[in-house]
Amino acid sequence: GLMTRHYNFCAGPAALPVAVLERAREELLDYHGRGLSVMEMSHRSDEFVAIAERAEADFRELLSVPDNYKVLFLQGGASMQFAMLPMNLLGQGGSGNFIQTGIWGKKALSEAKRLGFACHVAASSEANGHMAVPALDNISVSDDAAYLHYTSNETIGGLEFDYTPHVQRADGASVPLVCDMSSNILSGPIDVSDFGVIYAGAQKNIGPAGLTLAVVRDDLLGKAQANIPSLFDYQMLADAGSMVNTPPTYAWYLAGLVFQWLKDDIGGLAAMDAINQRKADKLYAAIDDSDFYSNPIAKHNRSRMNVPFVLADAALDKAFLQQADAAGLLNLKGHRSVGGMRASLYNAVPESAVDALIAFMADFEQTRG
After folding, report:
1. pTM higher than 0.90 for the full model?
2. Which end of the chain has the smaller Cβ count within 10 Å, N or C?
3. φ, ψ dihedrals at 113, nearest 5°
4. Is 104 tagged catalytic?
5. Angle (CA) 258 78 130, round 5°
6. Which of 106, 204, 279, 333 is flagged as catalytic?
7. Confidence category of residue 4, pLDDT binned at 50, 70, 90
């Protein structure tokens, strides 16, 4: 029978492009006449190695990743990187420096502290309630800073950096930037050469949960503590082409389909960027033009990917969510830590979804507000 696809505003695991799901369904039982599914293949088989290499090549092309960076396809989520990063980058001393702009950045710092690494908070937006990112002038790194970690887009708070925080130590050494881009990677072009490490959990803009990508500059490999698990060592993972053990093969394949969709159907990241800007601008305009909905984030730091908003009367939250759900607008409930609503507008969320949400919000405001 005919299947109904609703509009999915979930923060992650998030919407995937329909074209990708259809292609995966088409290839599910029999991949290219091989008589088996991708998820049944050996990760060492010629077929899967070709899938893996194509996915990496397409990802590199989309983001113009320079040759002196390794792209690792990993497990454990972005949260595993909170531990892997200091284990790899602080193996020869120095301290991890952190910019705090919300819940995920805080988790990255806590994990490094928990493992006993030297940590320094270089800047924080806590004083303004994480409503605006710290200004570049307010970032102060320690004399022994080995890297500066920040979260380019805070998925829960809806706060996004509008600049790249390049900093130097007192001795003039530039500090490698490490960025958690889980929720805004591939949402538009970036200059990878600005970064020492970029990492991102897949389940927002890359593919299904179970896969994490890390882009690591070559000079940051081989600095790990000697006693860390081999599966945590970037150098070992890079040397083995991310196949120290069996990688998440099906998630890697699906990510590859998403990369092809971005290249062929969307036309690359500049085109994706324009679509995402239009989507976010529309929704923020609807929120700002209303007396009933509001978003507190400083305009220049409003996330394009995650749009939190509150109703003027929180007593109507439940009715809003029930009616939205009935209208096929799914997963609009805000994170339990902040309440209210949140609409995530990742790459795979079409503009028609945003239009439908805006129409619903106007209707709800008229009838209930």
Report:
1. yes
2. N
3. -65, -45
4. yes
5. 105
6. 204
7. confident
